[in-house]
Amino acid sequence: MNDSYDHISPDLIYVVENIPGPAEDNVEYEELLNNYNSQLSCKCECTRNCLDETCLCIYNSRGRNYTFSDSNNLKTYKIIDYKNDKTIFECNDLCSCNSYCGNKLVQVGPLEGLIVKPCDIKEKGFGLFTKHPINKGSYICEYAGEIITKSQALKRHQMNIMNMKMNFIFCLNEHSNGKVTQTFVDPSTFGSIGRYINHSCEPNCFILPVRVNTPLPKLAIFSLTEITHNHEITIDYGSKSYNGLNIEVNVEYGRKGCLCNSDNCKGNLPFDFY
Predict the structure, then answer these.
(1) 169-174 long-range contacts, CB within 8 A, separation 24+
(2) What is the arithmetic mean of pLDDT over 36-54?
(3) What pLDDT does 212 receive?
(4) Can you tell me the distance from the alpha carbon of 252 to that of 162, in angstroms, rounded to the nearest whole number?
(5) Which tops the pLDDT comparison, 63 or 271?
(6) DSSP label at 232?
(7) Of 20, 19, 23, 17, which Cα lies nearest the Cα of 5?
(8) pTM exceeds 0.85, yes or no
(9) Fewer CB under 10 Å: which end of the chain, C or N?
(10) Residue 240 pLDDT > 80, yes or no?
(11) Which residues of 183-214 are buried (b: 16+ CB within 10 A; e: fewer)?
């Protein structure tokens, strides 16, 4: 993976991929660690490029994940399916295909030309911006950090509220066969450049789970629209706004006002219970 970025603060440790959180003496952490150390058995036998469903990884993804005009130029790679229910399996370490097979975009690393700098709205703090125009469907970066258990996420969330700290914990809910699988990623101390991406009620990027070697998904960020140079990269932090919650609930759970300044701003940052 080619990732030459770093943090602006010496108090943070840069990681290019997810790492397991602190050890816990419970079944939940044991399952998390087992998944982290597991290797997906699915592998393709493609000898060169992986372009159709004859590739087992693409078949398991229910069709091609990416398209490109030049297989040797990563700037031309774009995601095909924008649906939130899309499951992406990229070719992994066991596959026989080459590094530019057409199904290894997220593994290459974040987009070049990203920069962390203060936002125009001072209260937002820092944000992630692009030095160059970005095409619609381009891969931006991964929202990487510590993968933690639900109990650890709840504990950290409460500590953030008590200490009046920002909450960076991302909860991914995946629905399959009537079940919900949750993945918690916290880049508060260990994280990638994706931790600086702010919320917008009208975002220009979105997150999709991408699986490579393990059952645990990467939180991959793709551009939803064309993005002009010097523009801020934004995502929607959640699907619910809960504007109707009473004041006591807002205070107890640390509800934050939204500063996205979009025409359709919902007033508060999205909120949901884990």
Answers:
(1) 170/143, 170/207, 170/219, 170/237, 171/272, 171/274, 172/207, 172/209, 172/217, 172/219, 174/209, 174/217
(2) 92
(3) 97
(4) 10
(5) 63
(6) B
(7) 17
(8) yes
(9) N
(10) no
(11) bbbbbbebbbbbbbbbbbbebbbbbbbbbbeb
